[in-house]
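Hello,

Following up on my earlier ticket. Below are the two sequence lines again, exactly as submitted.
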Amino acid sequence: MRVIVPFDARDPKTRLAPVLDESERRGFARAMLDDVLDAVRAAGHQPELLATAPIDCEPPVRVDSRALTPAVNAVLADRTGPTGIVMADLALLAPAAIDRLCRPDDGLVIAPGIGGGTNALVVRDPEFRVDYHGTSYRDHCRQAQSRGTPLATVDSFRLAADVDEPVDLVEVLLHGGDRSSAWLADAGFELVGSEDRTIARRQD
Amino acid sequence: MRVIVPFDARDPKTRLAPVLDESERRGFARAMLDDVLDAVRAAGHQPELLATAPIDCEPPVRVDSRALTPAVNAVLADRTGPTGIVMADLALLAPAAIDRLCRPDDGLVIAPGIGGGTNALVVRDPEFRVDYHGTSYRDHCRQAQSRGTPLATVDSFRLAADVDEPVDLVEVLLHGGDRSSAWLADAGFELVGSEDRTIARRQD
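Thanks for your patience. The regenerated structure is below:
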């Protein structure tokens, strides 16, 4: 299956600014992207980048400087056949999770993110369009239901755990792909326990 | 399979104090517990409560006022056969997730929680003991590896999403079991979108 991976090639992961400077955010975002591309390929699918600016990488790249929603919808309008859309910051992704996303043959297969977002989709309904604004998981489900499109939800922590904020780095250190976990370790991040929770702290 | 559900019957969910008073925390904790018990039964397993104080409910109750780790280890020391241990605040739990936890026949099956905790285990190794302090997912995996115990990890958002803090209520409103999501709705909680994220806000 063709799997589109949208990627902000200009100013990625701004909510990690409290712990990573701009150059580091680019490097870490690229490491997460490469883990996602590896997982998609290892599951036997064909990744394609949908990037906001030109980027040097192995898979085909479609450049679209618009916001995420119109850029993805332009791909959906052009497509033939089932199309996966998988976010580039799913640093915990593994081939088995991609397999569970791509295996059902429902009109819409959706993986919710923590907090109500949509982290991954497989679209077979030719009229379905995305809207990533707001509580998009609920809105995408409602769209499928109102159109009578068969809907499947994938229950996966690896698909649910996107990496947006410093607190999310714990998951990358514990469960992340080779490149993104190594990137964090090289940058000095380590797990530190406290009474209530484990945090990812950067060594001084 | 016998599935132990530890439950704090005295002062549950203290980290929800910013949004729920003590009586409400008891009510909501009980709704989540009942959803967990329903999911365990619907998956064909036998729940047993491990409660810090006597509690009125249908499944058998073992009362142990000690902290979570020694109380669970006392159960493990007494047991015969495979034993599941599933936290009582997994409000998103569904029978399919319990099935994925209980199906593998490895010596230890583990479901990580968001933030490095251990939300569910199936223990077949008679010498395995829990330690819920700190980054317990990593520590439990290491214990199994050091003992040569075959280890399986379950990739499930429904098993990963425990409900500790106000931010976690979003997941209950979106994906929670019938009782816990209805409890929150009755208490006036609703989803409100903002630019970066969706939050659960209580109506005035």
